[in-house]
Amino acid sequence: MNEDTLATLLLFFRALADETRLRMIGLLTTQERSVEELAAALDLRMPTISHHLAKLKEAGLVTMRREGNTHYYALDSVSLHARSREMLTPATTLALADDTSGDAWERKVLHDFFVGERLKEIPASRKKRAVILRWLARQFTSREGYTEAQVNDILGRFHADVATLRREMVGAQLISREGGIYHVAPPAA
Amino acid sequence: MNEDTLATLLLFFRALADETRLRMIGLLTTQERSVEELAAALDLRMPTISHHLAKLKEAGLVTMRREGNTHYYALDSVSLHARSREMLTPATTLALADDTSGDAWERKVLHDFFVGERLKEIPASRKKRAVILRWLARQFTSREGYTEAQVNDILGRFHADVATLRREMVGAQLISREGGIYHVAPPAA
DNA sequence: CATCTATATAGATGTATATCGAATGAGAAG
DNA sequence: CTTCTCATTCGATATACATCTATATAGATG
What we know:
Two copies of one chain form a homodimer.
Chain A: H1 3-16, H2 19-30, E1 33-34, H3 35-42, H4 46-58, E2 62-67, E3 70-75, H5 77-86, H6 90-93, H7 104-113, E4 114-115, E5 118-119, H8 126-137, E6 146-147, H9 148-156, H10 162-171, E7 175-178, E8 181-184
Antiparallel strand pairs in A: 1-3, 2-3, 4-5, 6-8, 7-8
Helix pairs in contact in A: 1-4, 3-4, 7-8, 9-10
Chain A binds a DNA duplex through helix 4.
């Protein structure tokens, strides 16, 4: 779908997929540091540190402040926390696939009703509600079954009105209750 | 400090730092898929898909279910969401640096009082409280100054008792109020 | 302007890895 | 047992990139 989301995520994860850069983030967690300080702490040459800082900067993870010749780098912790929270929610990951997979409409429904990891609301339309309910059913992976408390716990991650969701899922025969234990129907593959 | 945290984060971010694997996650967001389906959707050979799935599995991002010869892969969304939330909080990133930087004690204090992105409590000890307050001061990067509401907003990300934090920071001369606007003291570099 | 200091850029090199075709494994079906 | 299907493992290749030395920029200082 959204080629832009993909590029942003790639930039973000690539910046973090390196041992040296993670160590740098560790050092920058407590305070800002100059290129020289980082080079000394990590036992690397300064050009190498510059190279890594450029990648972190490009990904929007650090900021720079000059003081004379010295460049002080600091974590952009607002961006860091906010983005790491939103990076892998359904709302985001849905945008990572093209529609060649044939389920374009379902993806759109899911995309429309998710805000981050949470459901905006339970769709009023029966067809759209079915899409959401099927997606929720896929979050129950155990063949062993779940107690009602466990069911509520999982559903609660996505919406406050767990009772409605649970009732609707039973009605749609996505889960069934027997002797106080809920079982998921085998995937319709 | 913790070599294990580093290895785990590296595994996680490396798994996500590839365009093809992000596209796979996009496809798996809606439903489980077989290796063949993924290969078709992404226009790649099956060995390539296997290779990528192995990496995602190693990082604990997907699970596998066999049905005859067919292997169905699904997102481990619990692990995905939980971990992406905790991955880059101060509590975690503090563990990424060795103590060669000379601020071992400060790091320990920060590590002790952070749970994820939140402060467990405001340290009673004056010295430890000073460490926390200095760290908080570094979250204010603008030279332009902040309104009281903005100060509360930033502090509120870390602890509920923003009034105490704000008062203590003024007392420690880390921020100062003039005409309703708060300014941060220049970093003690 | 000349010089010194802290970074950044360029170019070179070695290692890591994404991808493929070929070979191998492991259920299902005849 | 043989064959077929779906998947994984192996070996080869080509590209990406982390690191280095050498060179260039840019602010501070004489």
